[in-house]
Please model this.
Amino acid sequence: MLLNALKKLKGLFGPKAIQQASHDPKEIEELRLAFQIKYHHFKLLLNANNKALEFMTQIEEYLRGHKFFGMTFVRSTVTQIATNVFQMINNLNQIAPHKYVQLYDKFKEIQSALNDLLTSHSLPSEGPVVMPLKEVTKEHVDIVGSKMAHLGALSNIEGINVPNGFVITSYAYRRFFESNELHEEIPRRLQRANISDLNSLFELSSELQQLIIRSNVPPDIAEEVQREVRTLLNENMKQPVRFAVRSSAIGEDTGEASFAGQYRSELNVAPEDILDAYKSVVASKYSLTAMVYRYHHGIKDEEVDMCVGVIQMLDAKASGVMYTSDPLNGNKDLLLINATFGLPKAIVDGSVNPDVFKVSKSRPPKVIKRLFNQKTIMYTCLEDEGVCRTELLGEQGLIPSLSDEEVVELAELGLKIEECFGTPQDIEWLRDKKGRLWILQSRPLKLVRQKSQRDLKVLEGKKVLLMEGVEASPGMASGPVFIVKQDADSLRFKEGSVLVIQQALPRWAPLLSRAKAVIAELGSVTGHLANVAREFGVPAIFGMTGATNLLKDGMEVTVYADLCAVVEGLEEGIGEGQESPNFMKGSSVYQTLEEASRLIVPLTLLDPDSPGFHPKNVKTLHDITRFCHEKAVQELFAFGQSHKFPERSSKQLLCQSPMQFWVINLDDGFSVESPGPYIHIEDIQSIPMKALWEGMVKVPWKGPPPLSTKGFMSILLEATQNPNLETGMNSSFAVKNYFMISRNYCSLQSRFGFHFSIVETLISERQQENYISFQFKGGAANLTRRVLRAQMVSLVLQGLGFRTQIREDALFARMEGFEMDYMLERLRAVGYLIIHTRQLDMVMNSPSDVRIYQDKLKRELRENFGIGMNNGTGGH
Amino acid sequence: MVDDEAEFLETLIKRLKKRGLEVSGVKNGQEALKVLHERSFDVVILDVKMPGMDGIEVLRHIKEEFPNVEVIMLTGHANVEVAIQGMELGAFDYLMKPMDIDELVFKVEDAHKKKILKEKKHSKKA
Model:
């Protein structure tokens, strides 16, 4: 492709053009200005090109799925690519007035497709703002959230008691946000935050929650809520009624993402305070834990409508959580029941070590294991409003919270619910003071696949520091201890540490994505934090008494969750026990980026010399950038000739080199006025060209490498078959080597024998705009050898810090954003490589030659330019 | 600089001044148009989302009344449609908050250079 491009330009420049040039000073002045303007547009086009390509690379990187990102990232990246591409079209049409306006139409097509992808598709605008729980079924999940949809479904089943209540729906939520303009204000603030920095996120979280709490619920919604409340009060004439106000977000509890404990619930709320509690629960959508959780699961902020359940409050004798399978070993023949005195809050919050019952799923169920723990606290309803925490002293805490008969009754209910939903369930239950059993919540239980239990023998010869508690999440991991007692500690939490806490509170969930393992003094398998630990694949032991005293910050330990043991020292070479799960791939945020990337990233306009290289064939934004860049270079190249303007025509470079080069000065590339046909290398002041040139001439080329007969035959054969080579061979001087330069810009299109290369670079004090791009193609040997050569050069370039890509025998390399000196050093290396990798294709007999010549090139780069490099494993 | 967020405006003006630019700030579109009538400016840095007249509306007015003034749009909420609408109306660029201060300075310099070249060309023709 390069060959033809250069051939087209052949003969356009030189003495002939200069003879016909204008000498009118006014005209020359005008031409100069016109060219200056074009060059400025060219530079703006290059900057935009660079930016667009950088963002595209970023998209590709994020699509590999190892990074977390939200819709803010997707929107801002796509928007920035679109603006930069649009600027390229603008600038191209300034360089060549109105010549490429067709591109605007193509751009519009792609833009509108992107717009569709990024606009959230919402519910129909009208719907009920409240809904009595009795009327709710599973099908209402988009209106009431999954938690309330499940509860509604249960309330319709014979023999299952669910407290009365109603749901404030997603319609209400949207109206509430829109009437307070929160739907615009919140995304605006989110975009400006750095979501990976916990400190700033902490501030943002409290800011957003304040914003919501200070907003007003639209009066008609308030009225409907009050009406539902009155209905419930009328049904309970005899006693005062209090409510539990609970989150039921859309997308919550859907198996993959449990959202366990990420949102707030307000307990024992008086009727007159329901709207405040509602706002508080809605605000918890922006609690720190919930924001971090969504981010790590690739859940779109705007997809989460916060529905809220208002459920009649019951006071409890005992309560707890029941799993209808064992989540740790996937044992489906057992039910696991945790129970404590008072409200279930103590268990889900992890502030108590509950009684544990294992029950067989036989009919009738049989209790096969009981473990009675010291229950230190319990929560009960206060008479007026709220809940209170009571200490359980001595004997009191050791009394079993359930009898065997009660356990069996509960287990039967569990089996019924599991049957109803068809999958293992995580059920919150409550036994009231009259002994009646209630279901407060039921959601799918996430099972963890685990290898068989480790043998205690692995601990032999090791110093066991602690051995106690329950395995809340399986696996093993090593790391330094980091004790977190308050929020301030959590902000300092070091990635890769073993998190040690007193209580397994849900508020520590944001740390789990960065912790190696978790140890808590209090907490149970069925608590929220245990849920999240299993989701993130972080080994966890809960109920390990004395951990925060015995373990010290920075102490290196290894945690064996299945043995409930912590031993001294780091274990080398051990896996983390669980595969770290990846939630991004398959998440809706990821899918949106993937779909958008199809309109952006692929490059389909490959060959600028083919007739298909035309705006009508543009398919992606990348195509547009490619097209604009190619045409801009051509237009500038042709300017000096078409306007008979010697200053901007090509000049032959006077230098000590057997090769011939021509130079076009785009702006301020020469240090002297130069109307004649020649320019001396000394008079070049282009910073990047000088560096590139130094690299090209520093090490004398010793001629072609010694050939084996096989290599020689390969060339002969290729020469008879490759038409490109034939045309090239007709006249060895037909194609010239061109530099296009300004003070900070340089491009070199060159052809040495059958080897084509293009370098383009911008290097100035504006570090962010610096880049080097390098393309290399061709060779005289057969394709296999040329490909091997491309691979070899690619490895050397990777070692220099370039990103590289190989398509057959063509190599593309790019680097950007480093400071001037570093970029210039890299450019010298590129200059060296252009000269010294010629004809190496001929000696590429096998992959082992790749290694030999790669080492040779690296050695010479080190010896002559002082450039060290890494092993060349980077790049893609 | 036109931005309704006083704190943001103040900090940015201070930082741009440190880099040798002459900067004034106003809080809304009406004020912006008023000072443009009173004094001459090379570049306007304009927030997209402001109460009252929004950034796109202000841009439209500026480009009608002062076609040579270059406008750089700033936004806190990325939106492809608004961005392209701005560019079509003649904005020099569209940057996302929070932006790198150096990048903003470069944009201002580039926009300024474009303006100078454009003016030179017109004076030549005149």
Q: What stands out?
A: Chain B has five helices and three strands. The first helix of chain B runs from residue 6 to 18.
